[in-house]
Amino acid sequence: MQRSLTSGFLSIVNAKLLMSLIGVATLPLIVRVLGPTGYGDYAFLLSTFSLLMILVSSGVTEGVQKFVAEDRTDAWRERIVGFYLRLALLLAVLGSLAVAGVTWSGLVSRLLAPRFETYFYLLAGLVLTAQLRSFTRRALLGLGLEPYSESLSVVGKLVFVGIGLGLATAGFGVAGFLAAKAIAATLFTVVGFALLARRVSIRSALSARDGSLPHQELLSFNGLNVVLVLLLMSLFHVDVLMLGVLTDSARTGFYKAALALAQYMWLVPTAIQTLLLHSTADLWTEGRHERVERLAGTVTRYVFLFTALLAIGVFALADRFVPLYYGQEFAVVLGPLLVLLPGAVGFSLARPLYGINKASGRLVPLILATTVAAGGNAALNWLLIPRYGMIGAGMATSASYGSMFALQVVCARYLGYDPLAGVRPVRALATVAVAAPSIVGLDLLVGSTVVALAVVPLVGFCLFWAVALATGAVDTVELRAVAATVPSPVGRVLRSLVS
Length: 499
Known about the structure:
- By secondary structure, this protein is an all-alpha fold.
- It has three domains: 213 residues, no CATH class; 187 residues, no CATH class; 73 residues, no CATH class.
- It has 17 helices and no strands.
- This is Membrane protein involved in the export of O-antigen and teichoic acid.
């Protein structure tokens, strides 16, 4: 189990790191090609599409990832893949027809603007391709094929960005990026299905009888998961949608730019969440709660230290980095970005626990907890956006993100384990209290922006982990274990530093 977890984690986190680097490198290009208004339209469309795909996809993709990993009986995997593939195709067709029908009725152009009609027709086609891509990736993850699924994700990201920028530059704008998403998803599906067929016969899966499957358990998980993911994803998109409705496209674009930077802090926590959903399913099935507790405590401690370091760095360097990265016009995103940081740290802590809790299969406590956070998020955005605009959206979203961690801790204890065991909260907080003023002070001492962006992250990283060792938030035995899993040449350097 440990070797599988390590290998799977490295595959997922390395892919997410590469995709984040691609995103960091290309986001300024996308923003500049589309402009604030075009990027605001694009952000609004992506948020709308994400909420729509919850109804279409979330009952399928996480279900196949969780249940295909369990391999309970003979031909279990073929039956599971066949069941979820048929369901995925049915829901995708219904979702695509619904989007096309609403657009054809003229409702979209009346509620938004005539230019959105073309966008929504493209979204109708994207429903089909995105559904098949998500199904394929989750099936590969559930089968333990993380290196293949995540490598394909990186290739898909490159294809999307390359084609999207090309089409947008040629004059297709937002429509070009939507078309590029559909092309990249199709490529992923074709190659992914070929890989999936090596482990599971697709023909047998589609023709297999699923009468022996626990349909009540599967459908119960699917239905509850749709509700849960809808509530969770509302935390990511309600602020953008409300800004689009209550303000204008330009301010929505500025806020989305701030949100994108804050969400880069979720790189490692999201990778861990993705891995733990299927990797801890067997632990729950076997009743190994003590192993779940140890894993949760260790993960929570390291995620806190890692994301706290990132938050300190963003706080110190944001005023230098943002105008250089997005352009001087986007300097207004500094306010909402700084307001979002505390919530981004809290949600980073919640993500791995969310994956562990969901793997238990007991979704009702998670739904209740997420309902509290989602309801508070919607109410706060509705109250604060009209008064404070982007800052109000950041305040509401940050508070809701932060509440998710506390709510996931409550869920974990209800499910029978303590996720804070082994977290060492006093030592972890002492690390932040000592390191943060030093890193911010170093930034204030450096006058040159280029020098600060080159020196402060490196010195801050070394300083932070030195303080963490001094306070006992981490110890050398743990660092050696982590360094041993990292391949050379980076791993060799880390092992030398730890020694």
